[in-house]
Amino acid sequence: MTYSVAVSGASGYAGGEILRLLADHPDFEVRTVTAHSNAGQPLVAVQPHLRAYTHLTLQETTPEVLSGHDVVFLALPHGASGAVAAALPDDTLVIDCGADHRLESSTDWARFYGADHHGAWTYGVPELPRLSGTQRDRLAKTRRIAAPGCNASTVALSLAPGIRAGVIEEHDLVSVLAVGPSGAGKSLKAHLLGAEILGSANPYAVGGVHRHIPEIQQALRWAGADRPTISFTPVIVPMSRGILATSTARLVPGTDAAAVRRAWEDAYAGEPFVQLLPEGQFPKTADVVGANTALLGLAVDEQAGRVVVIAAVDNLVKGTAGAAVQSANIALGLTETTGLPVNGVAP
Ligand SMILES: NC(=O)C1=CN([C@@H]2O[C@H](COP(=O)(O)OP(=O)(O)OC[C@H]3O[C@@H](n4cnc5c(N)ncnc54)[C@H](OP(=O)(O)O)[C@@H]3O)[C@@H](O)[C@H]2O)C=CC1
Ligand SMILES: CC(=O)N[C@@H](CCC(=O)OP(=O)(O)O)C(=O)O
């Protein structure tokens, strides 16, 4: 069976990446693409790299235009998807790449986003360990998926195995991330990109204010933490795509190094898209550009009594669009890896 698909926010970075992946997906046919200020334009006028779609024109983003498809991907700014999603039929598979449906706690939502909370959908990171099984089990039974924040899923995948296995303490978690500016979307001002991001590393959202903090804490609670606390600091660096997250955590006293490594090996054994590198090897962002792969390296720092996990992810693939397509595959009962690249592009 071929599933008909609509992609909203198709003129943006996340929507464009969903379209790039779907062009090679044998079970999906993209029939409709929508946008906002670019509605009325041919898709390739705005996304000239997407040559598979020369026949499509961007339409207005309305529930009427999006209805009548089997699958709808929403890649809209925060706050814009809640109302659109609420008007779509229950049996349509809807995947929201924005934050509107990620958080279970309306208190966290109010604190970090402020506006109306639309409730939580099934979180779209299949490999996340849960107290019983993985997030994959829940994705198999849903028609509403909240694709993750790219930083949040990178850090959650880095730390959740240690929480799940009881080898790291849940307070005193620290993550510092180098992130590419494409994570901020196309609306990031051109002068910022050229004059301030090229040639510089710029910290932002410093001091416990980044909106991905509650998303990470929520994933760590699913892995068994009670009240996890994390210091989270992102730094924009001049690379178009990518996240390199360095996360450290205090080891539970008496835990030996072999048991620590085993926790991550066990969590991700057999996972095609989350891979732990051998001892002594660490990933670079260049290893995962264009791939739906999260690459992890792990070391035990004995003198500090901490584990150090370094994770590389392409924010637009495993961090968003790839996670969205992978989760949609699971929800539809398709082979999970269909249409998704495990290899990156190099150099
Ligand atoms: N970039 C990333 O790495 C990640 C992004 N996300 C999330 O994905 C979503 C899209 O992000 P991204 O692609 O980066 O953003 P972009 O700014 O690149 O794209 C935004 C898209 O939304 C459309 N749009 C803007 N305003 C409205 C509106 N009021 N109603 C309907 N459509 C509108 C734009 O249309 P037009 O161009 O025609 O105005 C465009 O297609 C966001 O929620 C973002 O947080 C999640 C994880 C990572
Ligand atoms: C460079 C940059 O600004 N990155 C974004 C990542 C956005 C993202 O992952 O998605 P959501 O906005 O959907 O949560 C940030 O840190 O906020």
UniProtKB/TrEMBL annotation:
Which keywords describe this protein according to UniProt? Amino-acid biosynthesis, Arginine biosynthesis, Cytoplasm, NADP, Oxidoreductase
Principal localisation: cytoplasm
Identify which top EC class this enzyme belongs to: oxidoreductase
Q: Which cellular component appears as one GO term in the record?
A: cytoplasm
Any one GO MF annotation of this record: N-acetyl-gamma-glutamyl-phosphate reductase activity
Known pathway: Amino-acid biosynthesis; L-arginine biosynthesis; N(2)-acetyl-L-ornithine from L-glutamate: step 3/4
Q: Determine if Oxidoreductase is one of this entry's keywords.
A: yes
Pfam families, alphabetized:
Semialdhyde_dh (PF01118), Semialdhyde_dhC_1 (PF22698)
Q: Do the record's keywords include Cell inner membrane?
A: no
Active-site residues, record numbering mapped to chain:
150
Name the source's superkingdom. Answer: Bacteria
Which InterPro entries does the protein's record reference? AGPR (IPR050085), AGPR_dimerisation_dom (IPR058924), AGPR_type-1 (IPR000706), NAD(P)-bd_dom_sf (IPR036291), Semialdehyde_DH_NAD-bd (IPR000534)
Semialdehyde dehydrogenase NAD-binding domain span: 4-134
Instruction: Tell me the compartments it is located in.
Output: Cytoplasm
Q: What is its EC number?
A: 1.2.1.38
Q: Which GO terms describe its biological process?
A: L-arginine biosynthetic process
Q: Which catalytic reaction applies to this protein?
A: N-acetyl-L-glutamate 5-semialdehyde + phosphate + NADP(+) = N-acetyl-L-glutamyl 5-phosphate + NADPH + H(+)
Q: What does this protein do?
A: Catalyzes the NADPH-dependent reduction of N-acetyl-5-glutamyl phosphate to yield N-acetyl-L-glutamate 5-semialdehyde.
Describe the family membership recorded for this protein in Swiss-Prot or TrEMBL. Belongs to the NAGSA dehydrogenase family. Type 1 subfamily.
Q: What is this protein called?
A: N-acetyl-gamma-glutamyl-phosphate reductase
Organism whose genome encodes this protein? Agromyces agglutinans
Encoding gene per record: argC
